[in-house]
Specification:
Blueprint lengths: L1 H16 L5 H5 L9 E7 L9 E9 L4 E8 L6 E7 L4 E2 L4 E9 L8 E10 L4 E9 L2
Antiparallel strand pairs: 1-2, 2-6, 3-4, 3-7, 5-6, 7-8
Amino acid sequence: MKYLLYIFALGLVMSSCYKQTYWLDDNVDTDGFFYPQIQSVTPSNDAPDEGETITITAKYWSRDAVKQVDVYHDANGTDELYSSNPFESHLDKEDNVEAWPLEYVVPAGTSGKDITIRIVVVTENDLEKSKSTKITVN
């Protein structure tokens, strides 16, 4: 009986330390609008040459309408806007997500450097999420 009480007390102590996460807390704002969800950001070539054009495919979905998709890069050590693209539908029916192919030209003078490319999806309610990928220039 004594051990049963110890096990119960231990279970009570352990459960009080557990903080459950709720998907809605991280993905819905206080007005009930939804943040977009970025599934993946994949470059067509993760080791391109200077001047090469690669395709960055951003797979995402959103319950609210998307306004734009922005591309940022840090080719020169600072995160700067590369392009801002108004929404166009690129629905991948197999995965049921938008699979947006974005063209990216690797800047000159970046040979041997890592470039982080960050995709930002912005909804019409100005809620945004971002996801990054890294390429290493030959």
